[in-house]
Design brief:
The complex is a heterodimer of chains A (about 270) and B (about 550). Chain A has eight helices and 13 strands. Chain A has an eight-stranded mixed β-sheet. Chain A is elongated, with a radius of gyration of 25 Å. With about 270 residues, chain A is an alpha/beta fold. Chain B is α/β, with parallel strands linked by helices and about 550 residues long. Chain B folds into two domains: about 375 residues, Methylmalonyl-CoA mutase (TIM Barrel, Alpha-Beta Barrel); about 55 residues, no CATH class. Helices cover about 50% and strands about 5% of the residues of chain B. In chain B, the strands form two sheets. Chain B has a five-stranded parallel β-sheet. Chain B is globular and about 85 Å long. At the A-B interface, α1 and α3 of A face α3, α6 and α17 of B.
């Protein structure tokens, strides 16, 4: 597939094209070909330009409040030219209550003030090239990590009181922890004990005390997924996969991306191995 | 430096060195928004020139000898939406609330010289300001507002001459002598090409209309500010503070050059030139920008243009807080941003001020939000005490040195524009547009990389957003406005209209004819803004953009 071709257009009379120009350049930097119409384009002119330039997608920008009448007109003008297959997205100063109206009237997606250019570029790439669709959502919880001061001291609760099976204990040097795995159905508890002062678990214990530390999600294609999260602007603790227990590859998402919950993404080399 | 000072300095430097080893500073390099490096500490630096005083050349510390001890700045909130009648209600409300001047926002068709029933106006009527088609709308807009007491600022550029004439015509009907009318028309076409986009004609005839206005007003409406040379939109389009000041001053020089070329005397029009700046968040940089701009303009007018009248040397300006700094996320935070920006404008010695409403990133402001914005100014004026002495930041080691630094950087841009051949040439070549766009793009990248922190946008975000109440413009307004215009067309004396328009056309062809009296005659026959601008479109052509 060649370069994605985008028509960035300003319908209506407003002259605020900072957003349109910045987005045009950001999309160019992502390798797309961008045609910018300039100011004051009528819906007919925009549809005509889209057909002539054979674009893959149209991005409309409006800051004057005329979006409700002008955006649907662009859809109408495309239909007149048998070009309804060209998806139209929009942005600008658009009150949230207008968004559903625009979506019902054929606009694929509205990005409002504060949206990142990365998110727009990702959206366009997926829209045009469905092969690049989002990776599969995680299908199960690989384990729940629980920070403890001493594994030996808490183990009896899990093995005797709850009656779970201890699968094994191992040291993960990269994290400065000793871990114990207890199988529960499809998933596991992971008890984490710090082995030195610099261990993140030690830090967690001194700040928050013992308790649930993180939730690990089983995923595939960890490397690709991380790239993607990065471009979406999700804060990561680990940008690259690193070695975890059980010969797995892992990476942590920063808790600020998930309102205070620490998530681990975890990819196992060979499943079924305990 | 005395030996004692020297020792103190050394001791401090040593302690910095040891502290930094253990606790590195937040950033390796601190910079202002214009990428001027901010030093760790500013200390006294002996200057050769004599001390500067307010009200005295070069006016770095302010243009009046008593500044806000005499009178506060004019609190002027930009308003206008929907119909003239509705806007008139908002104006009278704001005047009752203690606002001291009016500021009219026009809708986009009016700003580009289209009638509400023009095909180009579809969907835009009354959206970002009030729709004015003919003198009748202007009469409604100013109903029961005494034009001899209230000064009115009109944000109008390409068709400024038409709106000015409508204002004059209403003044005449109210029985106010022309020499008593006060106010400002924006009338700054160069920044329209650069940043704001509501141009009609190409640069040359546009410059002619502007100098026609200068000449007419000097003779007949002497208290009207004939232009508001605007950096505001240049900044909103993405420039930094240095570029804002530099491009504005460069545009100002172009207007002065055009007026001189048309044969006007510098001191006959220069005192009526007004400026319009932005106030963003980098507090001290903004204050320094205002101080530096005043100093540069004074020097240019006195030394380069040889103006004799001290009134010609003074840069008077309006300030508006930065719309593009407001976030749609957590909109109440915007009240705090606006407060800081307004304070910078006051510390910078502004003559009038508009404070933005918290909800402007979401839609046009509601009455509640507009009131909080006005109250913000009133609190600064009446409660903070900052207006009780003149230029309170004058003498601050940092502010003084930053003022000098900005002066140098602004002058460097002015030199570059001079090399290109002046602001008109630079606009036609797209030089300023490119500079602004490049800076806008860098800013966006820095925000996305979190190198620039915007609270609530890329840090300290909230998952849930509350949807505030937003102002909605009545969708039936467009139809009502179109009906009104057809009533006017049916009820006026068409022969008079045709005559006035054809006289205007004849005079537009003669390049040495001042068009303002002919536009005034046409306005009085209830010719519409679209009809008048179309005559000039035929004669002047339309600007096509770059």
């Amino acid at each position: 597939m060649g370069k994605i071709r985008v028509l960035v257009a300003k319908p209506g009379l407003d002259g605020h094209d900072r957003g349109a120009l910045v987005i045009s350049q950001a999309l160019r930097d992502r390798g797309m070909e961008v045609i910018y119409t300039g100011l004051r384009q009528s819906p007919a002119q925009i549809a005509q330009a889209a057909v002539q330039e054979d674009v893959d997608v149209i991005g409309l920008s409006s800051l004057s409040g005329a979006h409700k009448s002008l955006f649907p007109k662009v859809i109408g003008e495309l239909a007149k030219r048998n070009a309804s297959d060209i998806p139209v997205i929009g942005g600008g100063v658009i009150p949230s209550e207008d968004i559903s109206f625009l979506l019902e009237n054929g606009i694929k997606k509205i990005f409002t003030s504060g949206a990142s250019t990365e998110a727009m570029a990702n959206y366009i790439e997926e829209l045009i090239d469905p092969k690049k669709e989002s990776p599969k959502p995680p299908e199960k919880i690989a384990h729940i990590g629980i920070a403890v001061k001493q594994i030996d001291a808490v183990l009896p609760f899990y093995t005797d009181t709850l009656g779970l099976t201890l699968e094994g204990v191992e040291k993960v040097d990269s994290e400065g922890v000793k871990v114990a795995f207890l199988k529960i159905g499809e998933t596991r508890f992971e008890l984490l004990e710090p082995v030195n002062e610099n261990s993140p678990i030690q830090e967690f214990l001194s700040k928050k005390g013992e308790g649930i530390h993180h939730i690990a999600l089983e995923v595939d294609n960890l490397h690709e997924r991380l790239q993607r999260l990065k471009t979406e602007g999700i804060s990561m603790i680990n940008d690259e996969p690193k070695n975890g227990a059980h010969d797995s590859k892992i990476a942590f998402i920063h808790p600020k991306a998930a309102n205070g919950v620490l998530f681990e993404l975890c990819e196992h080399n060979s499943r079924g191995e305990a | 430096m005395s030996e004692n000072e020297n020792n103190q300095r050394k001791a401090w430097e040593n302690s910095v060195e040891s502290v930094i080893k253990r606790f590195p500073e937040r950033k390796e390099k601190f910079t202002t928004s214009s990428d001027i490096e901010v030093e760790r500490l500013y200390t006294e630096r002996k200057k050769d020139d004599t001390a500067e005083y307010p009200g005295l050349y070069p006016y770095t510390r302010g243009i009046q000898p008593t500044m806000y001890r005499g009178r506060f700045w004019t609190m002027r909130q930009y308003a206008g939406f929907g119909s003239a009648t509705e806007t008139n209600k908002r104006f009278r409300y704001l005047l009752e609330q203690g606002q001291t001047g009016l500021s009219v926002a026009f809708d986009l068709p009016t700003q580009i010289g289209y009638d509400s029933d023009d095909i180009m106006a579809e969907g835009e009527v009354g959206k970002v300001g009030v729709a004015i088609d003919s003198l009748e709308d202007m009469e409604k807009l100013l109903d029961r507002i005494p034009l001899d007491k209230v000064s009115t600022s009109m944000t109008i550029n390409a068709p400024a001459s038409v709106l000015l004439c409508m204002y004059i015509a209403v003044g005449e009907k109210q029985g106010v002598p022309l020499e008593k009318l006060t106010g400002t028309i924006q009338n700054d076409i160069l920044k329209e090409y650069i940043a704001r986009g509501t141009y009609i004609y190409p640069p040359k005839p546009s410059m002619r209309l502007i100098t026609n206005i200068f000449e007419y007003c000097q003779k007949h409406v002497p208290k009207f500010n004939t232009i508001s040379i605007s950096g505001y939109h240049i900044r909103e389009a993405g420039s930094n503070a240095v570029q804002e000041a530099a491009f504005t001053i460069a545009n100002g020089m172009a207007y002065v050059d055009a007026a001189l070329e048309s044969g006007l005397d510098i001191d006959s029009f220069a005192p009526r030139l007004a400026f319009f700046f932005n106030a963003h968040n980098n507090f001290f940089e903004e204050v320094a920008k205002f101080r530096a701009a005043r100093r540069i303009w004074a020097k240019l007018m006195k030394e380069h243009y040889k103006a004799k009248d001290p009134k010609s040397w003074k840069m008077r300006f309006h300030t508006q807080t930065g719309g593009s700094t407001l976030t749609a996320q957590q909109p109440d935070n915007n009240i705090v941003r606006v407060t800081l920006q307004a304070l910078a404008a006051v510390m910078g010695g502004t003559q009038s001020l508009h404070t933005n409403s918290r909800d402007e990133a979401l839609s046009l402001p509601t009455e509640d939000s507009a009131r909080i914005a006005l109250r913000t100014q009133q609190i600064i004026a009446h409660e903070s005490g900052v207006a009780d002495t003149i230029d309170p930041l004058g003498g601050s080691y940092y502010v003084e040195q930053l003022t000098d630094k900005m002066e140098a950087e602004i002058n460097a841009y002015l030199d570059r524009i001079k090399e290109i051949g002046g602001a008109v040439q630079a606009v036609e070549e797209g030089y300023m547009q490119r500079e602004i766009h490049q800076n806008a793009y860098e800013t966006q990248k820095n925000i996305e990389k979190e190198e620039e922190i915007i609270v609530g946008l890329n840090k300290f975000t909230l998952e849930e957003e509350i949807d505030p109440d937003l102002l909605k413009v009545d969708e039936t307004l467009e139809k009502a406005q179109i009906d009104a215009i057809s009533n006017i067309r049916n009820s006026r004396d068409q022969a008079k209209v045709d005559k006035a328009l054809s006289v205007l056309r004849e005079n537009a062809k003669k390049t040495d004819s001042n068009l303002i009296p002919y536009i005034l005659d046409a306005v009085k026959t209830y010719a519409t803004i679209g009809e008048i601008c179309n005559v000039l479109r035929d004669e002047f052509g339309e600007y096509a953009g770059i």
